[in-house]
UniProtKB/TrEMBL annotation:
Belongs to the thioesterase PaaI family. Residues 82-156 form the Thioesterase domain. It holds the Pfam family 4HBT. Gene3D superfamilies: Hotdog Thioesterase (3.10.129.10). It comes from the Bacteria. The keyword Calcium does not apply. One of its GO terms (molecular function) is fatty acyl-CoA hydrolase activity. SUPFAM superfamilies: Thioesterase/thiol ester dehydrase-isomerase (SSF54637). This is PaaI family thioesterase. Keywords: Hydrolase. It comes from Tistrella mobilis.
Amino acid sequence: MTRPLPDLAAALAAAAASVEHPGPLIPEGALGPDFPAARRADVELVLSLPFQRLMGFELVRITRDGAESRLRLDARHATPAGTVHGGVLYGLLDPAAYLALLPHLPEGANASTHDIFVSVMRPAPIGADLRFHARVIRSGRRVAFLDAEARLGDTVYAAARITKTVFGA
């Protein structure tokens, strides 16, 4: 017996709307002085996407040197072992890297991930305040290379090498 598929877009929108965000999407002072004002709407879009909202992904700071974001790990991120599900890490390292890339993109340009390699080095405990640090290794007219890490303090829990295609410039 097959079940009818739910309206996924409506389900995601309802789920995202049900998640209370603790404050503004872009906290006061989070965009560094070198951050292009024209890219503010892009940051808001990334942070308002249903997956990021459902996970509780929050911006800390973006400058040309990189981006920092955070995730307070709770039951929605848990495996039966009481650690964060790897898919949460994979899924949030990518937008963390995209935020770091935004100040480097030419006006009118955008980027899409075409390769991501993630290594999870150790299980992150539920209840922790996980920080994502991302930086641009190299950004050209057509391709960008980025590194992103998920850390607790100075300890790296997961690391990603991400390649993005730059288009629309």
